[in-house]
Amino acid sequence: QVNMVESGGGLVQAGGSLRLSCAASGRTFSSYAMGWFRQAPGKEREFVAGLNWRGESTDYADSVKGRFTISRDNAKNTVYLQMTNLKPEDTAVYYCAATRSPFLRVGGVYEYWGQGTQVTVSS
User: Could you give the C-alpha distances from 58 to 17, 25, 39, 105, in angstroms and in order?
Assistant: First the structure.
């Protein structure tokens, strides 16, 4: 079992920045690849960013590429999502997740999920 808790969401104006954090516990954090997903009201969950087991390889959705950065600090058992130049269409609940699969864009491969943190971007 891996328990994960997201934090750092909030209300921000378009063009602003936020950094989301996801603190994990219960298993060896460094053995899992990590991903960030988001879900807006009435829409399906979508992949945002992924980071492999060792943190040397990243993957991003086209909609956030160049604006968002995923990183991890294994010593702190924490994964981050640095979001810059936020847009109203980024408004969603953001979830972190952990997987032992290399297919980071596929939500179904993630074994553990956090409860989510709300990000709201005003125009």
Answer: 20, 22, 21, 11
CB 98 within 8 A of CB 32: yes
Collapsed DSSP state (helix, strand, coil) of residue 64: coil
Tell me the pLDDT tens digit for each residue of 86-113: 999 999 999 999 999 989 999 999 999 9
Q: Which helix (H) or strand (E) holds 84?
A: none
Helix (H, G, I), strand (E, B) or coil at 20: strand
Q: Report pLDDT for 49.
A: 97
Task: Give the angle subtended at the CA of 57 by the CAs of 75 and 53, to the nearest 5°.
Answer: 45
Q: What is the pLDDT of residues 35-50, one digit of tens each?
A: 999 999 999 999 999 9
Task: With H, G, I as helix, E, B as strand and everything else as coil, classify residue 111.
Answer: coil
**Which one-letter DSSP state was computed for residue 16?**
-
